[in-house]
Design a protein that fits this description.
The complex is a heterotetramer, with two copies of chain A (455 residues) and two copies of chain B (500 residues).
Chain A lengths: L11 H11 L4 H4 L21 H13 L8 E2 L12 H7 L2 H4 L11 H18 L3 E2 L6 H16 L3 E5 L4 H11 L5 E5 L10 H7 L6 E6 L9 H10 L3 E6 L17 E5 L15 E5 L12 E5 L5 E5 L6 H4 L12 H39 L4 E2 L8 E5 L4 H10 L2 E2 L2 E2 L1 H4 L4 E5 L6 H18 L1
Parallel strand pairs in A: 1-13, 3-4, 3-5, 5-6, 6-7
Antiparallel strand pairs in A: 2-8, 7-8, 9-10, 11-12, 12-15, 14-15
Chain B lengths: L57 H13 L21 H7 L2 H4 L11 H18 L3 E3 L5 H18 L6 E5 L5 H8 L3 E5 L9 H7 L4 E6 L12 H10 L3 E6 L11 H4 L3 E4 L19 E3 L11 E4 L5 E4 L16 H37 L15 E4 L7 H9 L23 E4 L7 H26 L14 H9 L10
Parallel strand pairs in B: 2-3, 2-4, 4-5, 5-6
Antiparallel strand pairs in B: 1-7, 6-7, 8-9, 10-11
The chains are: A alpha/beta (455), B alpha/beta (500).
The structure holds pyridoxal-5'-phosphate (PLP) (2 copies).
């Protein structure tokens, strides 16, 4: 037994005593109902059990092989941003009570967690400017897919009009989720100059009945869409408007809910979640009261205890898989509760003024960098629309070579945009509040030099 | 409301109540940028006057959430025998590893060759999972069990598509977890329900009668959510395979099997694993988990992209160009930090350790069942696997009330229909599903048993204490309004609310 | 006793009660060494059969200490106006910085040139402390305030030794913290006590009368532990200096002064700082803190080794060869991780921020004093600095009982003689020293004031509630056996217990 | 105000309101009792306030300049050891309730902390095999000094007999603490061959009355002293025996208390405290019942609440500075409570079997390394006495050059011993359980090569 970690807790004498109590001689007899030919005859072929320090040195070694936003200055975005995470977020989210609780099925001993989830719903509701928000779905991509399904279910229509400026990964997941559900997806194109949704394309798609118009702002080029117009056009044709957003931008950008969006979804990573090589992140979905019965996932609400005192509990479970089974609004069971906690703590720390400043600083720095890069010979901004903190530039050299060159000098300079637009020589660059003026200037200098060397 | 509120009142206070406009912001400042002026180009869009976010000082945030955490019960505070959820101890060492900057600070859009350590970890983990389950290939992408189900079902779909077969039905036992039928529906399948026999096993005859060319697969978990191992599993597998159908394994109950039996050896073709159950990753108050999906070799080409595997030069890489793949089930590579913890768990235990985990999980459940059988007879008269289904029908009190009283004695209630997320048919509606897990020691089990017995004795002498329990919590008993709830449930609303 | 015990009972349980012999060990293993066989050469010494250490599983350890933490009140749970202790919010960002492996994993015996980042940090911190206090040089080594006092006093000793003066007396005000006379005694000095005037200031005439060639220094804190700024400080300094004596500043109350006045400018020659007070490093349940000691230039040669300073080439290094140094006050370089947090605090605040800290600390204390003056009149009729000394003499209840009742309303009691570590003369034995600190908002202050007033009203209607408080804690009121305690104290035991 | 971190909590309107309530116009007026000429006229000359991410990047930069036991394999000891610290220790010690509490003067709301301190006393008592242990002093060096003073106070004698094999830094602090207190310190020498206390030197010192004999085992050469004999000899002459120890070694080595030591002290760093460039660590002192009144520092004990229920509280405060002032047993006020918590958690995790294994593995690996190094031409063990996990070797080259050479190859190979013994060519090497066989073998190989290159 000596080689087992301290979290195995039965001693040999305990096991004997228990087997006796159960009335069997051995573990083998205990499970003798398992057909003998199925029983594994040899030990699993796994590495020898590691002590904690061996584990640590193995994992530290693996981690050290990866480049990261610590080893390189990170100008990567694409829906995931290197915003600062205050230490308080980690401090709170690592508290064992939160970390090791399950879904609060027993509200009497989960009022703390229920308050967290309820406040998460309220705070995100304000950010999106919608009255109803759920307790999270897996990520931004599945939030899009679930939102789309909400629109289908609520409208009774099975056609979706979808902007092609949504993150490509999100679109792929949308397609996957809809593929077998008798849903027709019509993509609308974008204006190559402005980098925004092509309104003519939208208008023509709207000639046929549809469940919803779905768009994202800022979009996959970093460009802000005219959400107000998109929503109006959808509503004129009795379509729901489903709008994806970048939560941090909402510190200064008008909320989709304010423009009348019926469903607002987002990837929540920018609100206090580590980059973590892609996850866990968090999908957020908000909507109007009228659509609440179509929401996927958990909802927390006010109730009363038997003394009549206010209390919180999971509500509207009749939407969910454990009650409604195959007719549920979604299959989601485990969600991203701990990420919701992080986000709530993050937003509580930032508050009105903090989020505004994070958004403003990110925008200021991105606009500074873009303007400076534009001054470099051969570089031009790819799109004319307004951007928040992420922008595309066209470069006169092979983009992936440029990225590689800058990487060698300590920068993850941007995402190659070829997949978006078939352009080989386009870079998507994101800037957050954490990049200092010195860093930006240094980057501009190295960028310019690298360009020279490559051309 | 006042930030100087006492601890107990914290749960009644929302962050808005604590807001003092003008505070907050946590020192967001940069000496070289003013942080106020909106870039001109943006001004048309940046018209938001206020967000309505609360404004708290840092100390108020820390206090509020520290207090709230104290009003939340987790495994770190006591036993949590919530059946089907495998609330085992979550080793702290694993959390620390996932936080290493070389993992936590990696941006997913970095050049693919900039994270070789991550790919090695993925590759190792996939191999270990394959070994543990007897499958051939794994994808680590799914976000949770339900998401693993979706992935697996879409893989099955793609398999039949490639064979030009049109199979539209998924068979599901009546005791299946709600996610099974829900995932099947999301994959465009029709669900057909198989009854459970009196012995608690799948009704093989009923299944046989439902088999035809339309059946794509049977989804089951073994041991089932009734805590029983289905000894007919090989026959079930053979019957299905003879019908050209596949067998899906819901791995939520894998904690009973490691090192003892492997789903792959039983004949399952596709499986998912709940890392947040079997592999000890923290539940986090409801998530995130991870739901790796494993398949037999013939299904491997259909796994979602990216696929982490060795290329022709023997290097491990993430491959996106997989023509037969079902596509992408979520952004990027899965719940990386959760997967790291699962990997650490496997490495800490090794083969012997994992077998001990499962042996002890089964032992603990049977010990609970034996020790409580006079009060709470097993629903099925046989030994259980890692959880036991006990009948509260003989109690002279509502089992829902009974379990709430356990809270007063430091024990989290077991799973009942409606409290926890299992589903039993009406016959077992007084049943309790108790899953102690292997990380509760004999001393803890004996204490839990003593608490169950104490409450049972209380029925005769002070049943009001039970009916009004819990008494030690800050809020009193909360009951969901069941009649309203059920009526709402029955009146299956027409989907007419197309909104304007 | 049982590990399955409920939360409330945790405090009654020791780790030995939770021991299950045979558990524990947390997976200590190495595949290449057996971990059992004692090297032969050692066997004569390695004869220990058992240590008697408790044997707990990892989950039992986590649960036990998680529960115990919940039974411990800290600043993270609510206001803690314990006078003289400066229980301010401890910013979490600082803790994270001290944990960076580049600090936390440095071995102190590494080559001295292998830690340039640490030396830079030390150097910067020394300079910042010098600027904040108006001193010329700092040593960061002392482990706490008392240790800083010892260091400072030995520096003073060395100064007079080098001047061949034999001065054996340290003057200490009667309100001084107990560490002052204790440190003076440890440095071989005789303490003489200076009374406090009716106005709460140092009795300058009394001091003057005590001055002679034997007086090495006066140790005082300004503001004093009575919360008052001594406006005669320049006169005091001049008088002492004219006598050839030095002036020592106990920096425990520096929180009142940053950016407003500097001890160095007042005439102090030696000072210590309590980082765990003014500079927000966590108190940790009683420690560790740090007690950097600052001096005027003429005392710099005597600072303990190693001294971190620039060498002739302008590089920052740790110097050990300092012939005039008093020597070594502790192993290595001081409480490094604490010092890192203090450094972070200074950098986060900047000059404006630190001034705001002190302004607000003073404002908060005066606001408390003003708001409570009808109930608890100030002992001295004047504005206070960062803490206020209020008289509980008019209360129709014992102030010790009064403050315990505050616990029921979420407020940590203020300092009273015997509860907290200040010392007042008998006249003020009913006084309460309230130090709200600057991190309590107006809302929290108003709530605290409301709680004080509520308890005061309760005196008339339900004094038993006060006398038996607290009522919301798991244990009831605890009273130290005062008569026995005092009698023990008076009978100053002869040091006769030379033991065999 | 925007530039102030979120932990400043008074808004301008709050300040105005409060000033009004107090009855003054301004902060200046509020503190007008401070002589005007003393008031600072200009802002402090400090760097501009940093946001959290700036702070983080500054500190990360400083940290990255330091070598560490992560960047180099650490064979350094000298009283401070690179033992593994289980993650649980950090998890518990970072809980805010423990971290932000003060000394438990209010026992009713500090029972959790009091239990921790009380259990710390009990657990360390078992480890040392003594009945009484205090709640900690600053570090091992001050523990030695405080122990010495205890002996002086308790015995009434003012002479100390002190072994010269105690850590030199500890001896320096002892001298400093005793310098002005009319104490005479007589050093006894060591046997150059065995590396242990010279018994003849001890016997001769014991001819004069003394308060105590003070020694340390394992000593500053890593060699185990014959503690039993030392204690016996001291007791024969009515001297107290004060013994310093290495707590980890007590997993297998007989405890000083078992040999009859009257006062046992130690540096507690090896029991779960980070290396942290030298601190905070923790001094531990244990003793017999009869000496309790001479103990420095806090003591926690059982008491009763007014209902007669058992409870814990600080006891015997009459020894302490806040009560007894200049006659106190010590000046210590703030101590190392959080380190005591860490140690308690560490020892609870290890338990009987775990500490034994840590000690055994450390010894096994050290003996393996020593034996292998002895096989290398030119290397010999410096002392013949038995060692635990730390040993001295003589090398045929300049020790500091060798250290430097090995450092370049990723090893902090050992401590140069010149300061101990005037030997230029001596290395003190410590091995802990965390060094794998591969690492040891690699070290031996690099060591051998480096030696060749230098000679
Ligand atoms: C049997 C079973 N299947 C599937 C699931 C769904 O897993 P997840 O919550 O990870 O989506 C659960 C979770 O409770 C379960 O118990
Ligand atoms: C006025 C005063 N001086 C000195 C000290 C001693 O400081 P430390 O506890 O850091 O040794 C204190 C601590 O309470 C104090 O309040």
């Amino acid at each position: 037994m000596a080689s087992l970690p301290g979290y195995n807790v039965l001693r040999e004498q305990d096991r004997s005593h228990m087997l006796e109590k159960i009335g069997v001689d051995s573990i083998d007899q205990l499970i003798d109902f398992i057909p003998a030919n199925l029983r594994l005859q040899q030990p699993l072929d796994l590495p020898v059990a590691m002590s904690e320090w061996q584990l640590k040195s193995h994992l530290t070694e693996l981690a050290s092989q990866n480049e990261s936003a610590d080893s390189h200055v990170c100008f990567l975005g694409g829906g995931v941003y290197d915003h600062h995470i205050p230490a308080v977020v980690d401090t709170i989210a690592s508290r064992g009570e939160f970390l090791t609780a399950y879904t609060p099925y027993q509200p009497e001993i989960s009022q703390g967690l229920l308050r967290v989830l309820s406040d998460f719903q309220l705070v995100v509701g304000r950010l999106f400017d919608v009255p109803v928000v759920n307790c999270s779905v897996y990520d931004g991509a599945t939030a899009l897919a679930e939102s789309a399904w909400m629109a289908i279910s609520a409208s009774g229509e099975n056609r979706l009009i979808v902007s092609d400026t949504i993150w490509p990964e999100h679109l792929e997941v949308l397609h996957l989720y809809m593929a077998n559900r008798d849903v027709e997806i019509e993509m609308i194109s974008h204006d190559e100059s402005a980098g925004t949704c092509d309104l003519a394309s939208l208008e023509s798609a709207l000639q046929q009945p549809a469940a919803a118009v779905i768009a994202q702002s800022p979009n996959c080029f970093g460009i802000l869409e005219d959400v107000k117009t998109l929503v109006q056009k959808a509503h004129q044709k009795d379509c729901l408007a489903v709008i994806g957003c970048y939560p941090t931008s909402l510190g200064i950008i008008e909320a989709p809910g304010t423009h009348g969006a019926d469903i607002v979804y987002a990837e929540g990573q920018s609100l206090g979640l580590p980059l973590a090589a892609g996850g866990p992140y968090m999908g957020m979905i908000g909507t109007r009261e009228a659509l609440i019965d179509f929401l996927p996932g958990r909802l927390v609400g006010e109730t009363k205890d038997i003394k009549g005192e206010p209390a919180l509990a999971l509500i509207k479970q009749e939407r969910e898989q454990h009650v409604r089974r195959h007719k549920a609004t979604s299959h989601i069971c485990s969600n991203q509760a701990l990420m919701a906690l992080r986000t709530l703590v993050y937003l509580s720390l930032m508050g009105e003024s903090g989020l505004r400043r994070v958004a403003t600083l990110s925008a200021q720095k991105a606009h500074y960098l873009c303007a400076e890069l534009e001054k470099v010979a051969g570089i031009s901004k790819s799109y004319q629309g307004a951007f928040f903190n992420e922008f595309c530039i066209d470069v006169p050299v092979n983009a992936s070579k440029l990225i590689e060159k800058l990487r060698q000098q300590g920068f993850h300079a941007g995402i190659e945009c070829s997949s978006h637009d078939n352009s080989q020589d386009r870079l998507l660059i994101a800037v957050t509040e954490t990049k200092s003026l010195d860093t930006l200037n240094h980057f501009i200098q190295v960028f310019t030099q690298s360009l020279k060397k490559l051309s | 409301m006042n930030p100087g509120t006492t601890l107990k009142a914290a749960r009644r206070v929302s962050v808005f109540d604590l807001s003092q406009p003008g505070l907050g912001g946590s020192g967001i400042t940069d000496p070289d940028f003013d942080g106020e002026h909106i870039p001109d180009e943006l001004s048309e869009f940046a018209t938001r006057k206020n967000t309505g976010l609360p404004e708290l000082s840092e100390v108020d945030v820390v206090r509020h959430f520290t207090r709230l955490s104290q009003d939340t019960f987790g495994v770190d505070l006591g036993p949590y025998p919530l059946g089907s959820c495998t609330m085992k101890y979550n080793p702290k060492r694993n959390d620390a590893m996932a936080d290493l900057p070389g993992f936590a600070r990696v941006h997913p859009a970095q050049p693919k060759d900039s994270m070789p350590g991550l790919w090695t970890l993925f590759h190792n983990l996939q191999e270990h999972l394959a070994e543990i389950t007897g499958m051939d290939a794994f994808t680590l992408q799914p976000a949770a069990g339900a998401h693993g189900e979706l992935t697996g079902l879409l893989t099955i779909r793609r398999h039949f598509e490639s064979k030009k077969q049109n199979r539209s039905v998924i068979l599901i036992p009546d005791s299946a977890h709600g996610t099974n039928p829900a995932s099947a529906a999301m994959s465009g399948y029709i669900c057909k329900i198989i009854p459970t026999t009196k012995e608690g096993t799948l009704d093989v005859e009923a299944m046989r009668s439902m088999l035809d060319g339309d059946v794509a697969a049977l989804m089951m978990t073994n041991p089932s959510t009734l805590g029983l191992f289905d000894p007919n599993i090989e026959e079930i597998a053979k019957t299905l395979h003879d019908n050209g159908s596949l067998l899906y394994y819901d791995g939520a109950n894998l904690n009973a099997l490691m090192g003892l039996v492997r789903p792959g050896d039983m004949g399952f073709d596709v499986i998912h694993i709940n890392t947040h159950k079997t592999l000890s990753t923290p539940h986090g108050g409801g998530g995130p988990g991870a739901g790796p999906c494993g398949v037999k070799a013939f299904l491997e080409p259909y796994l979602p992209i990216p696929v982490v595997t060795r290329n022709d030069h023997g290097e491990i890489e993430a491959q996106f160009d997989r023509p037969l793949s079902i596509g992408r089930v979520k952004s990027y590579f899965g719940h990386v930090s959760i997967l790291i913890k699962a990997y650490c768990y496997i490495l800490s235990n090794g083969a012997e350790g994992l077998r001990m985990v499962s042996e002890n999980a089964v032992l603990n459940a049977n010990y609970m069942q034996s020790s409580l059988s006079d009060l709470l007879p097993p629903v099925f008269q046989q030994r259980c696997m890692h959880e036991c289904l006990l009948s509260g029908g003989d109690l002279d009190v509502d089992p829902f009330d009974f379990v709430k009283r356990l809270i007063d004695f430091g024990v989290h209630p077991p799973t009942l229909v409606g409290a926890g997320c299992v589903h039993f048919s009406d016959e077992y509606d007084a049943a309790m599903l108790i899953e102690p897990t292997e990380t509760e020691s004999l001393a803890v089990l004996d204490d839990m048993i003593a608490q169950f017995r104490k409450v049972a004795r209380e029925v005769a002498v002070a049943r009001y204490m039970i009916e009004t329990a819990p008494h030690t919590t800050d809020v009193a008993k909360i009951i969901t309004d069941e009649p309203a709830f059920l009526s709402m449930l029955e009146a299956d609303k027409p989907c007419d609310s197309k909104s304007s």
